[in-house]
Design a protein that fits this description.
about 325 residues, Arc Repressor Mutant, subunit A, 2 domains, five-stranded mixed β-sheet, four-stranded mixed β-sheet
């Protein structure tokens, strides 16, 4: 427990405190939401700008994005370094970023270890696990292998690329190094508009969000079943779905009103419109019918690069609209 522990969030750091860890480096910057970039300097700039933008207060952010300088300073010295991550998609993306970043600062070596706590729950990050699970994972921690360094870095670069195709191919191919890749990364396609039976439809999660409203004013998750709320909140930034609903309102598809409330999930109420009902029933005429957003390094719903999710009985894949 005298090691330096790199974890993905403040709840994860708190769990490691409960397990006895003293040196913890973390960020609340979930890389499954907002823009990413293959260039580390550009990536850090984008994350800081996005953090301030969505925080709602000029110059004040709370996610604490990490950059290579912070990472280099964090591992200074000769203590063992333990990198943590479960099989949850948000933890995996963090893990790949950290592996790539550590490689860039020349940190490969025998003092670097990987701790992979296991949970039956697919969305359970390190922050969701009890201290005893952390103890078990730490006892089983092993030196990071050459294959883990290499493939973790490759997966991060593919995820942060402007094109989602290489990462989607890796998801479908699978990995012996990260065997949970195919199942966990299924969430990667959840925000892409879908082509099904020859028709362009809303993304899976946009359909869930818009379909949860009617003519009554409601807050973000008021009428959603628990498993859908968990799918929208756990893998992504805490308030990302609320931000997405605000984007739909700015796009003219939902109506929005502000409410005075200390709970950020309760500060907005929304209701449907005829335009929302048409998108749900008839689909999209083009990707520009949905507000743009970032999925890793890819900009989704951008007419200049119309990426779509192709649905088939054998599974789904990503493609450029009109491409093979």
């Amino acid at each position: 427990m005298g090691a330096i522990h790199l974890v993905s969030s403040s709840p994860a750091a708190g769990q490691l405190i409960g397990a006895g860890a003293r040196k913890r480096i973390y960020s609340d910057d979930k890389l499954t939401s907002g823009p990413c970039d293959v260039d580390p300097a550009r990536h850090a700039e984008l994350r800081r700008a996005w953090d301030i933008e969505v925080a709602g207060l000029p110059g004040i952010g709370w996610r604490k994005p990490l950059d290579l300088a912070t990472l280099r300073a964090a591992i200074a010295g000769d203590e063992p370094v333990v990198l943590w991550g479960t099989r949850a998609f948000s933890d995996l993306v963090w893990l790949w970023w950290a592996l790539d970043g550590l490689r860039r600062v020349g940190a490969e070596g025998s003092r670097f270890f990987l701790a992979r706590p296991y949970s039956d729950h697919p969305f359970a990050t390190v922050g969701h696990l009890p201290p005893e699970t952390a103890h078990i994972a730490l006892a089983a921690a092993s030196p990071i292998t050459d294959d883990e360094w290499r493939e973790g870095s490759e997966l991060w670069l593919q995820y942060a690329s402007p094109s989602p195709l290489a990462f989607d191919e890796a998801r479908r191919r699978g990995s012996s190094v990260f065997p949970e890749l195919t199942s966990s990364a299924d969430l990667h396609g959840a925000w892409f508009p879908r082509i099904k039976n020859g028709r362009l439809q809303l993304s899976e999660l946009d359909e869930v969000l818009l379909g949860s409203f009617d003519d009554s004013w409601r807050t973000a998750f008021q009428k959603l079943p628990e498993h859908r709320v968990e799918q929208l909140v756990s893998p992504f930034d805490a308030y990302f779905s609320v931000e997405r609903l605000r984007a739909w309102a700015t796009h003219g598809v939902l109506e929005r009103e502000s409410v005075t409330d200390d709970n950020p999930f309760e500060q907005d109420r929304f209701r449907t419109t005829d335009r929302a009902r048409a998108l749900l029933s008839r689909g999209l005429e083009g990707v520009a019918d949905a507000p743009p957003m970032h999925v890793g390094g890819c900009r989704v719903n951008d007419p200049s690069s119309p990426w779509v999710r192709i649905e088939a009985d054998s599974g789904w894949r990503l493609a450029a609209q009109g491409g093979p």
